[in-house]
Amino acid sequence: MTGGFIEVDQLLKKYRDGVLVGPISLSSPRGVIYGLVGPNGSGKTTTIRCMLGLQKPSKGHVRVAGLDPASESKKLMQITGYSQELPSFPPFLTAKDILTTTGKLKGLSGEELRREVSKALDISGLVSHAGRRVGSFSKGMLQRLAVAQAIIGDPEILILDEPMLGVDPAARVQMREIFMELKRAGKTILFSSHELYELERLADMVGMMYQGRVMVEGWVKELLSQDAGGLKVEAEVLRPSLITPQLIQSLKGVQDFQMNGTILRVRFAEGLDGRETLAATLVKSGAGLVRLQTVNRTLEDLFMEVVMKGVKP
Ligand SMILES: Nc1ncnc2c1ncn2[C@@H]1O[C@H](COP(=O)(O)OP(=O)(O)OP(=O)(O)O)[C@@H](O)[C@H]1O
Ligand SMILES: [Mg+2]
Questions:
Q1: Alpha-carbon span 256 to 258, nearest angstrom
Q2: 311 CA to middle of ligand 1, Å?
Q3: Domain 6-223, what architecture?
């Protein structure tokens, strides 16, 4: 254990039918937004459920705010808000009923309960739907209600399993703002998502899962820094037929490259900046260089590298 605020160490979950997930290790400091991403079935929900004590690990350790979710889940639930993947609610209850019940379960009453319920309705954009039965809610509205439920009682930690699923773009922007606001208030948020673009904009740290393991974990800024994974360059030329694979491969540090019409994309080995040599070579070859620019790495690039290769970079 390295002592993160949320710490998962060599977690193994063996399901009854023999499916084995793990070993999973991840670590999130306090006060950050941590995004968990991975293909379907890679183990995000399993990890999240073990963090909340809703499932018991078969092996390994989980600590959230110093608590063991398996044996101290009651204490943990007092400081944690949770929204489950594909939330389901009793269809005959209204949004306000559901949030009131959640507040009571979290120990709230009287004026404080009323205030927390109306704050959650307000933050989640559900004020005008508060009195509607949730059986008539759309997918995105149910998702908002799940997040509203999680934030009731001002918990210190939020653990949200795919909170953005089915949420429209405008509501997603709102949700991003809610997350940022909560972070400014010092909360720790861990959420899973398939939206890599969303993660890139929102998360401070990311854990990329693949087949029951965290393959990459780190600060988004560092993972996407220009040099991480090698400098990527895009060049546009006038006469692509003059560029041969041998010409590009002969350049020092070229890891891989693709030619698509007049656009050449080259990735250099980590720590190597071959831009000047590439530019000079293209000009000398007669291909005619129109522009050359560095391409920023995205989480999608990284995710595809990890998932496609299935190995830790
Ligand atoms: N209750 C269960 N019984 C048996 N196997 C399960 C159970 N829950 C999950 N699994 C298996 O564990 C693995 C991880 O599933 P999990 O739900 O944690 O993935 P996930 O990353 O959340 O996927 P998704 O993106 O689809 O939500 C899968 O192989 C899944 O089939
Ligand atoms: Mg899941």
A1: 7
A2: 21
A3: 3-Layer(aba) Sandwich (3.40)
